[in-house]
Every structure is written in structure tokens, then in C-alpha cells.
Amino acid sequence: MSKEVIGLSFHSMDTLVEVRAIADRHSEEFKAALQQTPQWFAQVEDSVSRFKPGTELSQVNQANGGTFAVSPIFLTLMEQSLQAARHTGGIFNPTIVDCLVNSGYKKSFGAISGKSSGRKILSVHQPVAESQNRLLTDCEAIKVDVEQGTVTLPPEVGLDFGGIAKGWAVDQCLTNLLALGKDAEICVNAGGDLRLYLPKGGEAWQIDIQNPFDLTKDLAVACLQAGAVATSSVLKRRWWSGGSYKHHIIDPRTGQPSESNIVAATVIGPTAMEAEVWSKTLCILGVEEGFALLDRQTGWAALSILNNGQIIINRQMEGITSVTDASFAMAVHIAG
Amino acid sequence: MAKKGAWVDIVLKTGGVIAFVAVLGALKQAPLPTQQVSAASQQTYQVQPSSAANYDNSLNGYYQYQSANSYANPRGFQTRAS
After folding, report:
1. Which residues of B touch A (CB under 8 A)?
2. Read out DSSP for A95-109?
3. Which of A80, A82, A206, A210 is most buried (CB neighbours < 10 A)?
4. Edge-to-edge strand order for the sheet containing A150-153?
5. Kind of pairing, strands A330-333 and A311-313?
6. Which residues pair with A251 in a beta bridge?
7. Set of chain B residues whose Cβ sits within 8 Å of the Cβ of A325
8. Which positions ≥6 away from A162 have C-beta within 8 Å?
9. Alpha helices (H) in chain B, listed in sequence order
10. Distance from CA of A273 to the nearest CA of B (A)
């Protein structure tokens, strides 16, 4: 079978998406499916973007609580977000939207303004325990009725699906393409969150890991047959507000941008959606607590870059990755 | 002698405080429980040198890879925060 490399790239969900496949030269059906991928991402964005006024998410957030009949996309992401919150002990939290707005992240990144959300927001002076309790309680108070296709939110609780929606869109995109081209090598890449597939015997995908301190360079490389990769960083999507830099990774225990010793984390595992959840969780918890929690799961490899420039990986990352920039030292985290 | 004894007492107490602070500082900066990685000896696959040429963010729309394309490795991507 003769293969060729084909691809498609487009802007969606506030990032550059690229789908690349090494596929049967004559599979017109596969090529047609590939060309449909922008519509899929647009569909997800139109449902759950919090920056577009007409989306389902925007309508839900403006309503100040209630029961909403939602689309299957919204319903699935709501369920997945709550599941991720449970797995991470509430560290991944879809209800931190007010904290994001409070920090200044009110519009899609490039268009941040000073307007208020109009809803109650967590005070920056609110005690940590109170903030945490409220956020975890907010998650537990959300009800999902799969049969009825409804989501019920308590008053004053808003949602932000953010990166989890992007990761899920990537996963679904690859699954859809695989149904038409099982012999194809496929990579779906949404702004650096990737899902990969390789038929047996194929040559591995090479994933360079960006240096968060110098975005023009990479610092490590990982080689994968399949799976997903996601990276989060507190040095990206930053803005100046209230006399200090803020970033978009909110620690739900404080309601403020996280201040752990990890500035960037790359996680490799089965799905892009979960990899996104864990990379964010590591950034919030820091290396000790974060790796301890991640290592209680199975099948997740992680690489974190600390604020002192050191690279720490877990056992699962050994053999997958190597440092390509000699100015960085890499060490393996030992649990306990 | 009593005067000398008082000085000794002060020196010993001050030294004790300094030592205590030093121990606290050392504990605070104790290295993480890690183990150094031995180069890339456990690498499973052949890795090409990292290069920005492996991915090309300027691509737009549908494309077919040609050997003359600017990016060298069709299996090369970059993970990054976005």
C-alpha cells in the first residue's frame, strides 16, 4: 500500500490545530474525513467556549444557576470535568471561572479587558480554607442527568471547561479518523496538546518539549508509539494585573494563580483530555504533592520543570524522554 | 572569673542559636529525593536532533507532504503550553 503524508491546519479554540496523517494514498474517504476536522473543533468551541457570547456555556454562566438542557458535547464535558475533579481531589476544578475573571482573564487571551463578570467573585482576602471549601462544594453540588440530558448548577456557580475541552476534542478527532483509517499514522495537535496513533511496526512519533523559559527552543524530546501528550505552564497566558503578573492556572485552594515550584509540566498518557488535567494539576500542586498524587494513578509519565530550572521526571518517563539542551539537568523523582 | 563565665555562656548560647538557624536553613534547602538520569541510554527509538524544522506553524489549510517541504520529520511535533 502506497502511503503519503497529508495534513490540515487551522485556528480553533484560541489555538493552532494541526492534524497530520501518513495514510493510504488512495483513501479518498479518509481525506474527506480529515477535511471535516475544522468543523468538529468549531462545533466543540461553539458549545463550550466561555469567550463567545452565544455558546451554551456562556448562556449557562449568565443564568446564575438552574437546570439546563444541554447538548451531548456539553453533557460529556461536564461529566468528564467532574470526574477529573474527583480524581485530583478537587485540584482540577471546572468552577474556578470566577477566580479566572477576578484575576483578569476575562476574554480570549489577546483581548483581556477590565470589564467585570457581574457575578459574585471570591475575594482575594477570603481565607484559604473557605475558598477551597466553596469550590469543592460547588463541584459536588452540580448535578448531571444523562437520561434527561440536563445539567443543574447552584446559584453563583460558573463553569470553565478550558483545556479539558481542547483535549477532549483532540481525542474525539483521532477516534473519528481512526474509524476510517486503521492503517494510518495519525497525530492531532491542538496548540501543543497531542494525541497520537501508530499502527504496529510504525516509526515512533518524536515530540519535542518546549523550553518554557525560552519559547524559541526545546529542552527535551519524547518518543511515542501512541497515546497523548499535554503541557501546561504558568509562564504562558500571563498578564499584568493589580501590580503583579497573573496566569491562568488557578489553585482552587486559594482562588489565586498557583505558586508552586513547578513552572511547566508535560504529561504523557492514554488521552489528551486526561493528560491536560494532570499537567495542570502538577503545576498547581508542585513536584512533591503532584508526583505523589499522579503516581497513585497508573500509566502516566510526567516531566516537570521547576522554577530553579531543574527537570524532574517520574519513573514512567524514564526511557521515553531525554534532555536535548545540556544546560538543563534531569533527575528522577523517587516517591515517598 | 564570674565575668569570664558569663561571656562563655553568651558565646555558647549565641553559637547554639546560629547552629540552630543553620540547620533550619539546610533542611529548608534539602534537595528533592531524586536520582540522576544516565543520559539517554534507555532511549528506545532513534531520536533526531531537536530542530524547529520538525514542525512548521506557518502551515495553513490542507497540505500534502513533499520531500522539499521545510519541515524535515513528518513524525515530529512539539508539545507546549498554549
Report:
1. 32-37, 39-40, 42-45, 47-50, 52, 54-55, 57, 59-65, 73-82
2. TTHHHHHHHT--SST
3. A210
4. A66-69, A150-153, A143-145
5. parallel
6. A256
7. 50
8. A50, A248
9. 2-28
10. 14
Which three cell numbers, joined as nine digits, stand for B80? 507546549
CB A20 within 8 A of CB A35: no
Residue A162, H or E segment: helix A162-178
The band of A336, judged by pLDDT with boundaries at 50, 70 and 90, is low
Map residue A16 onto helix, strand or coil.
strand
* pLDDT tens, residue by residue, A264-290: 999 999 999 999 999 999 999 999 999
Strand ranges, E, within chain A: 3-12, 15-24, 66-69, 143-145, 150-153, 185-190, 193-197, 205-210, 218-224, 227-233, 238-241, 244-247, 250-251, 256-257, 262-269, 301-306, 311-313, 321-323, 330-333
ipTM value of the model? 0.84
Q: How far apart are CA B12 and CA B10, in angstroms?
A: 5
Pairwise CA distance, residues A223 & A204, whole Å? 6
Q: What is the biggest distance separating any 2 CA atoms in chain A, rounded to whole angstroms?
A: 64
d(CA A173, CA A271): 12
Tell me: pLDDT of A124 over 80.
no
CB proximity list for A112: less than 8 A, separation 6 or greater: A104, A105, A106, A239
Residue type (1 letter), A111: A
DSSP A253: T
Beta bridge partners of A205: A224
Chain centre to alpha carbon of residue A63: 26
Contact at CB, A324 and B36, closer than 8 angstroms: no
Q: Which of B35, B64, B80 sits opposite A332 (nearest CB)?
A: B35
What cell does B9 get? 555562656
Q: Residue B53 has which C-alpha cell? A: 524544522
Q: What is the pTM of this model?
A: 0.80
Question: For the segment A283-313, what is each residue's pLDDT rounded down to a tens digit?
Answer: 999 999 999 999 999 889 999 999 999 999 9
Residue from A160, A168, A190 nearest A273 by CA: A168
